[in-house]
Amino acid sequence: MTERRAPSTARRSERARVAILEAAYDLLLDEGFLAMTIEGIAAKAGVGKQTIYRWWPSKSAVVFDAALHAGEQAADSGGLPDTGDLEADLRLVLHAIVDELRDERRSAAQRTIMVESMHDDELAEKVVEHILRPQLELTKDRLRSAVRAGQLDRDTDIDTLPDALYGPIFYRWMLRTQPLTHAFADQILGTTLGVHKVNQRARQGESG
């Protein structure tokens, strides 16, 4: 007789976890953060409410992990492109960010998380640790590569340059002061990198 193995508890738990994350993200997009409930997430995922509370302390915690899971599923790679053309590589990244923020459903989910993080310190720490800091560090790595290649001035402030690139885009997105477009991203990119290219040319002139 063929021995029948009992289903793996770890496998069942992982299936339940994924079902909860996907259910939470779907409800976030369809109903919004305020309207959705832990009970609704549990019903949609086909699990008990206590199963959710065993892994997450609050609705905001499960919603954050749900959004993070959705982002990980959509991610193509672990780093920024490095073709040797810094401006082209950063333009590709900025355009992708603009496209994501212009997606009505995904933008609403991200806006909810950002707003909630303003009065939830634990959620704010998660946003910085798992979303903002990784993106900033990847950008800094790409900028360091450009410095080594002689495309940026050696004195370029690698720590603040990413803020100059991303800050205006998220400012316009959050406050909706004007439409968020690829052209706006290109303008920010050209202005930001142009300053450092001018500095580099000036230094070359001084040394000559």
- Please, how many domains? 2
> How many strands, which pairing sense, and closed or not: the largest β-sheet?
none
Uncertain runs are none
Q: What is the string of SSEs from the N terminus onward?
A: HHHHHHHHH
Determine the number of helices (DSSP H or I, runs of at least 4 residues).
9
Terminal residue distance: 86 Å
Q: In the CATH scheme, what's the topology name of the largest domain? A: Tetracycline Repressor, domain 2
Gyration radius from CA atoms, angstroms? 22 Å
Helix percent band: over 70%
Look at the structure and give the mean pLDDT.
85
Q: Give the amount of beta strand, in percent.
A: under 5%
Shape: elongated
State the CATH superfamily name of the largest domain: Tetracycline Repressor, domain 2
What is the CATH top level name of the largest domain? Mainly Alpha
Account of the protein in words:
Residues 37-56 bind DNA. By secondary structure, the chain is mainly alpha-helical. The chain folds into 2 domains: 9-66, Orthogonal Bundle (Arc Repressor Mutant, subunit A), CATH 1.10.10; 76-207, Tetracycline Repressor, domain 2. It is 74% helix and 0% strand.
